Amino acid sequence: MAVVSRLFADLVPGEIRDGWRHDGWYKDQDIFTAFSAWAAYYPERVAVIDESGPVGYRELHRRSLRLAAGLRAAGVRAGDVVAVNLPNGWRACAADFALAALGAISLPYPVGRKRRETLSLLRRSRAVAAIVTRYVGELDYVGLLAELRPELPALKSVLVHGEVAPGTQSLDAMCDSSHDAIPLGDLPEVSPDAPARIMASSGSEAEPKLVLYSHNALVSGQTPYLTTLGDAADGTPPRFLFCVPLSSPFGSFGTPCILAAMGASLVTLNRFEPDAVLDAVARHRPSHLLVSPAMLEQLVASPLLSGPDRIDTDSVTAIVCGGANVHTDTVKRTQDSFDATFVHSYGSADGIACHTALDDSFDDIVGSVGKPDPRVISVRIADDDGNDVGFGVAGELYARGPMTPLCYYNSPELDERYRLDGGWTKTGDIAVLDADGRLHVTGRKKDVINKGGVKVSVAELEEVLHQHPSVRSAAVLGMPDGPVGERIVACVVLHRDAAPLDLDLLRAYLRDEIGLETAKFPERLLTLAEFPLTPAGKVDKSQLRSAVSA
């Protein structure tokens, strides 16, 4: 039966979801029930390793139930939205499980988002509570929420990790062993079809989109994506090191899939630093690394991966790099640095996930994002009129499958724009499906620079720039330029000890070595020591625009 409320509805027809259930693709378990089973079977197995050390399944289960008791005492009930702004670690996982146990809806978002995005997320979601870290750098997050409180009439409670303030409650105290847990028999019955999590988009739109997922879509719909990535080399349950935030769409595999569905282990760090990641690899022996392209480019540049003091990375069997466009040079340098399979992964908050296979060729890895798994998602490629196109023809990518979200939360205008009859989602990505069933994502419909009437693909130009022998990382911006439309700015990070690069040298390379059309040449070159990253681990192009404009 379709889930319907004033703020959301399931836009996938019930008979289609029932078909996935009939095929065994839905296990019909809510997140907390699935997690509880693993805690009962393997209580001493490590669930999460963070910077405070390992936490086993039984202990994480206990802490989650204590937190659930505290949240219920704070007035959180089934169907309520609770915003969660915590760094990677056991507390973020406990918050997910506690909210799932209560039938509440988790809205996690990466640490580091500031006033505008915080206000947008909490106001549009009508969050009744927020679980936050007190200080994020120099920002007092509790103080920020106090300033926003008049604009957030639904917000009743704030739980704080770290120093508490008047009017807030201590998250750490709620999870402490001195507090009572909710007895399992006192928990509400939670439907696997009920909403569980809101994924916030990266904010490339005017405001982050709020994408609502059910327990089934997370526990059953997403998990097959991970089960094809292999086990640990020693035959033990896989151990996944997340470089990306667990609160990001890519990080959404962490709690519901790796812990609740698979009974495996998570390794996490408070924030991404390349050398800290490599140190964690040596100490905690993960089997899989999950990383964004921008993070990976910094990681493989670390001196810890070369020389006589090279760090031990032998435990890593696969590196899963999440991004539609992973540059060929990045893949080559990763394979030179790690004795591990490179997995090219593609996904979005809007409801799609696909990756290359462990036995794919190099050309398949750099040229495609693999074959869509119908247990996760099926795809269509359509023209501007919504008609399906043939193999090898580019068009907009539509997706529908067991992981498909319910809808855009409290956003009927987004449902109207991006959801279609039958439950399909318009991703906004341009893609090609080849005759072998491989998906090739070539860019975003909006990610095109209009330079005096010439349309320049940002993805194409960034790939070309990466081929320059001096360039380690590249990002391309279109900057407004009056009657011309936009001018192209190339932003680059150079390899260590690379020869200097100026605009004339770059343009000569593009002309003589690449044969690029002159109309696609950048008009400006900005060289940086390192790219700024968003809280979700992507290149922060808004900061780059500010640097260009300065």
Automatic annotation (TrEMBL):
Organism: Amycolatopsis azurea DSM 43854
Source domain of life: Bacteria
Record-linked InterPro entries: AMP-bd_C, AMP-bd_C_sf, AMP-dep_synth/lig_dom, ANL_N_sf, ATP-dep_AMP-bd_enzyme
One Pfam family hit: AMP-binding_C
Domain (AMP-dependent synthetase/ligase) ranges: 35-409
Protein name per UniProt: Long-chain-fatty-acid--CoA ligase
Location of the AMP-binding enzyme C-terminal domain: 460-538
PANTHER family associated with the record: LONG-CHAIN-FATTY-ACID--COA LIGASE, NONRIBOSOMAL PEPTIDE SYNTHASE PES1 (EUROFUNG)-RELATED
